[in-house]
Amino acid sequence: MANLITLVRTLMAFLVVGMLHVRTTGVYVTAAVLTVLIIVMDALDGYVARKRNESSKFGAVADILGDRVVEMTYWIAFAVFGWVPVWVAIVVAARGIVVDGLRSLALERGFTAFGATSMMRSRLGTLLVSSRMSRALYGGAKAIAFPMMILLFTPGLLALLGTGLSVVAYASVYATVAFCIVRGTPVMMEARRLVT
Question: Under DSSP, is residue 118 helix (H, G, I), strand (E, B) or coil?
Fold first, then answer.
């Protein structure tokens, strides 16, 4: 069931990006609401996996892959639309590729990204990368940034809400990117022991 939730939320991200080509207020507001639902489903799949005792290495990898596809779908779409600078999508993609590559190496050696067999050994690394708090904060940052960007470019909404919407949207984007980098750095540091 958890893997099905991961698949559905991934497909929903493609649907949302498709919806963004229909520039009407109703479609954009619906896309923003669906985006929040996609982020909530990210937390839901882990909860369902634990509740139904469906936790597995495959499920953990599928969850991370789903996260990456969803995240990159949004960042790339936003860059293509000209809503965020291209470097934002490049930085997030590069960080994702490097971190996932290192996690793949760790998985080969019996370590997972999260949980009891996590590759994270330091307290700071565990706090920044593996802790539920860190994962919730990062998910929350995306849950603010992604729908806020959609709302920012919703026809007629900026005129109604003023420049405060723009400030909040872009602040949340750059905070999310910074948090992405901060969370990726300990993985790179911890992975040094796996490649030596």
Answer: strand
Nearest partner of 165 among 71, 91, 75, 83, judged by Cα: 83
Query: Strands, E, within 79-181: which ranges?
Result: none
How many angstroms from the chain centroid is the CA of residue 57? 19
Q: Is the separation of the CB atoms in 143 and 36 below 8 Å?
A: yes
Residue with tokens 């590559």: 101
**Residue 139 half-sphere exposure toward CB, CA atoms < 13 A:** 22
Rounded to 5°, angle at Cα 58 from 53 and 60: 70
Interatomic CA distance for residues 86 and 193, integer angstroms: 33
Residue type, 127: L
For residues 54 and 5, give the distance between their C-alpha atoms in angstroms, rounded to a whole number. 12
Dist. CA 42–CA 139, nearest whole Å:
8
pLDDT tens, 103-147? 777 777 776 666 666 666 777 777 777 777 888 888 889 889 999
SS3 of 24, please?
coil
Q: Is 122 helix (H, G, I), strand (E, B) or coil?
A: coil
pLDDT beneath 50: ranges in the chain:
none
